[in-house]
Amino acid sequence: MEKGSDKILLNLHEVGFVDSSGIGELVKSYTTVKNRGGQMKLVNLSKRVYDLLQLTRLHAVFDIQSDEASAIQSF
User: Fold this and answer.
1) 2, 8, 16, 74: least surrounded by Cβ within 10 Å?
2) 58: which DSSP letter?
3) CA separation for the pair 19, 13 (Å, rounded)
């Protein structure tokens, strides 16, 4: 964002587990991006990570896309 990008895409393909600290960082990043007028999307979530976002109801907050191409097109 500091270099002018206001569209952030986080590819979580290799992330198999997220703990409470990771969730906190995702929420913090999302809030920062949104407050600066940007957009943040998550892509390629493992079932385990997606299930955690469902459990915490954050799946309704984050824009979750299945692949990079659709995520980029959705901006």
Assistant:
1) 2
2) G
3) 16
Q: How far apart are CA 29 and CA 38, in angstroms?
A: 11
Whole-prediction pTM:
0.83
Token pair recorded at residue 37: 């007028």
For residues 21-44, average pLDDT: 94
Beta-carbon count within 10 A of 2 CB: 5
Residue 65's CB is within 10 A of a number of other CB atoms, namely 20
9 - beta bridge partners?
Answer: 41
Query: What contacts 68, CB < 8 A, 6 or more positions away?
Result: 9, 11, 43, 44
pLDDT band at 37; cut points 50, 70, 90: very high
